[in-house]
Amino acid sequence: MASEQKTMKSRWHYLPVYEENIDRDGVKHVDYSICEVYLDDSGLIDYWNAKPSLQPCGDSVEELVDSLELMLADTRKWEPVEYESLVSGMKLKKASHIQ
After folding, report:
1. Contact present, 34 and 54 (Cβ < 8 Å)
2. Which parts of the chain fold into alpha helices (H)?
3. What is the Cα–Cα distance from 58 to 44, expressed in whole angstroms?
4. Would strands 81-82 and 12-22 be described as parallel, antiparallel, or unpaired?
5. pLDDT tens figures, 12-71
6. How do 45-48 and 81-82 pair as beta strands?
7. Beta bridge partners of 12
8. What pTM was estimated for this model as a whole?
9. Residues in Cβ contact with 41 at an 8 Å cutoff, skipping those fewer than 6 apart
């Protein structure tokens, strides 16, 4: 059972991330997107995709819907993280409504 739980943690997850930007008028704004992160067996970030924004896709409408549902579930699970602050070994924080 322990090895089963270990393998389940060690997989890709969808993480809400944000980037702070300043527009042409000098106004600061925050853009949110979804990033894939791979968690190691301890549940810490091991690596993530190179771009902060992920586009959902699938080989069929059903796969696309499944991907979107997973993205939505994971996005609700974790607190957003600034994309530039992602580091290997980082522990994700559960969303405040879950704790």
Report:
1. yes
2. 2-9, 61-77
3. 27
4. parallel
5. 899 999 999 999 999 999 999 999 999 999 999 999 999 888 888 999 999 999 999 999
6. unpaired
7. 38
8. 0.80
9. 6, 7, 9, 10
Residue with tokens 């979804």: 34
Nearest to 30 by CA among 82, 90, 87, 88: 82
Q: Which residue has the tokens 């819907």?
A: 65
C-alpha radius of gyration, the chain, whole number: 15
CA distance 71 to 40: 19
| Burial (CB count <10 Å: 0-12, 13-18, 19+), residue 10 | middle
Strand 12-22: give its sheet, edge to edge: 45-48, 28-39, 12-22, 81-82
Contacts 24+ apart (CB under 8 A), 49-55: 52/17, 52/19, 52/83, 54/14
